[in-house]
Amino acid sequence: MLMIATDFAKLPVGRYPKDGPFNGEKFRLEFLVPKLKDFDRVVVDLTGTLGAGSSFLDEAFGGLIRDEGFTVSQLEGKLDIRSDDDSEVVQIWEYIRSARARNARH
Amino acid sequence: MLVKKRRVTIDFRETVRFFADGTLLFFAELDRIGLLIEPYAGKEYHLDKVVRCRSLPRDAVAAQVLQQLNLLSKMGRRENQEICDDTVKYWNHASGEFGIGSQAAPLLEHYVGKIPLRLQKDLGKGVTEAMANCVHHAYAFPRKGEEGVKVRKWWMFSEERDGMLTVAFCDLGVGIRSSLRSGRRWNLKEVMTLLRSFGSSEKDSLYIRVALKLGTSSTHKIERGKGFSDIMNVIRSEQRGNLRIYSDNGFYEYQRVQGDRFEDFKTSIKGTIITWSIPIGSD
Fold it and tell me: Lower Cβ count inside 10 Å, N or C end of chain A?
């Protein structure tokens, strides 16, 4: 289980390292991907965060499709996203479902 | 004042109220001046070498605001105003140099449990996108005439007053027009096409309009351009309150009922301020 507020940052900022030290790419590479590779089921909980911007969420979760080779159906089977604000969960799944793998775009 | 190397004296006698966005800009400029005259990390600077406060506001509440912001001692005043007014107690400020959320978190945490969860999260999203934008674009290159200025900070204020929560975010970077025209932020061709559709002028307010259009467009590349959506959504999802964006000479205001308002002022603020004002009292 990954609690973003306590395991990563209460207020994550931006997409890439140049945006800030607690960015979406870092969360994806150092937290999400290793857990997804090691476990069949991964719970990611945003409860307690002070808000996670679109750049962070899209890079962290949409990036799983774009850059890491996961498919939507794989993530639907493995990822359990929770939050004290339901709209965040809906938003994250929108990013996942609207992302296209980079090699599929060319 | 730094160029002419002359000390400036400010007389606050007739000041009766500090508004969050204007005060934030004043605070940011003073802080930048302080960091320029004593640019040593962690060292407490004193502005009174270059900026002095001649007279305190006659208005007791206005004087307390200066105290709450720690500006009196920095401007060479030894008075210690007792902060007893409720509206002043609720002024909070934060600042930082990079996209480090923990520097803004204490200001936002102040409202946890006091405002609805959805609004708290939307504010956090808006602030982090403003911060990422600041780090990414506002200081991507120096302002004209400020090539030697190395201060790349952002500043934040929040205020609760008369049932309204106001949160303001400010940078002293290049402004939206220069950022868009540089071609670094968006495709310049796209910018110019939109600009022409809005009436082709060099007004800063028009560039704010272009940035909002590009930054909230669903047709834009998926990896880019969501920041302004988060900035707008604080007001859109609340369906009340207003958003104000000042960038150089330009001004934009969004209110749910009245819609959009654009204006251009004679004087540039030399930076960008984003301000959200939301009613938080029961209605």
Answer: C
Considering CB atoms only, which of A20, A59, A84 is closest to B100? A20
* φ/ψ of residue A78, rounded to 5: -105, -30
Q: Report the alpha-carbon distance of residue A88 to residue A50 in Å, rounded.
A: 12
Which residue from A minimizes the CA distance to B134?
A19
Q: Per the structure block, which two tokens stand in for B180? A: 């868009």
**Helix, strand, coil in percent for chain A, rounding step 5:** 55, 10, 35
For residue A19, the model assigns a pLDDT of 86
Largest CA distance in chain B: 57
Q: What does pLDDT average to over chain B?
A: 86
pLDDT greater than 80 at residue A87? yes
Query: Cα separation of B164 and B160, whole Å?
Result: 6
Find the CB nearest B122 among A51, A56, A98: A51
Query: What's the whole-model pTM score?
Result: 0.90
